[in-house]
Amino acid sequence: MRKPVKGALVAAAALAAVAGMTLAPTTATAGTQSASSGLLAGWTASPGGPWTAKATSPKLTDTKTGTKLTCTSSSAAGTLATSSATGAGISSITSVSWSSCSGPLGITFSVTPQGLPWSLNAVSYNSTTGVTTGTLTGVKAHISGAGCTADFQGPTAGSTATLTGSYSNSTNTLTISGGDLRAYNVSGSCLGLLNNNDPAVYNAAYVLSAPQVITSP
Prior knowledge:
The structure is a single chain. The strands form two sheets. Strands 2, 4, 5, 6, 8, 9, 10, 11, 12, 13, 14, 15 and 16 form a 13-stranded antiparallel sheet that branches. The chain has a four-stranded antiparallel sheet with strand order 1-17-3-7, with no helix packed on it. It has one domain (3-215). The chain is elongated. By secondary structure, the protein is an all-beta fold. The chain starts with a strand and ends with a strand. The protein has no helices and 17 strands.
């Protein structure tokens, strides 16, 4: 591809942060090249290097209880490699933060990322739509507010989560819309809004502050 490249709780995100250019694997179709299929010789990025991005109204949803935690914004920063043979680790997320996060009953929360840096991995590119898909790996986050705390991690306690999404060249936007986040270490007066082992989804759209150009054969 040769175009400008491109929690709420988490996480995600803590969003998708959340910003880069990666997402969930998809089957290669006409106009799509897949790193895992062996059709993709490599990825390049220009100018590469440091980037920053911001998401408006990122949201974390407990999909078992329906509880939603929404933030006014999330900021992320990282470093983009100028080249990657497979797309794995093409970019890092070295910092991520969330502002003014609240849930039901007016409960306010702070969100703290854990285990940084997280890794952005390019998986496939559709030349017709200019969309890259891939993964954001290594994700963990802690939330705290009004006597209710929880950790959002991967499929088992202590593991890291993998988030999914898509990156559009035409809008310089990384959209995070899935993954395997779960709640652990839920404590305090959470009023049943969050429970241990509840699955969760983080949704955010991170817009890069300056274009990057990613190219794949």
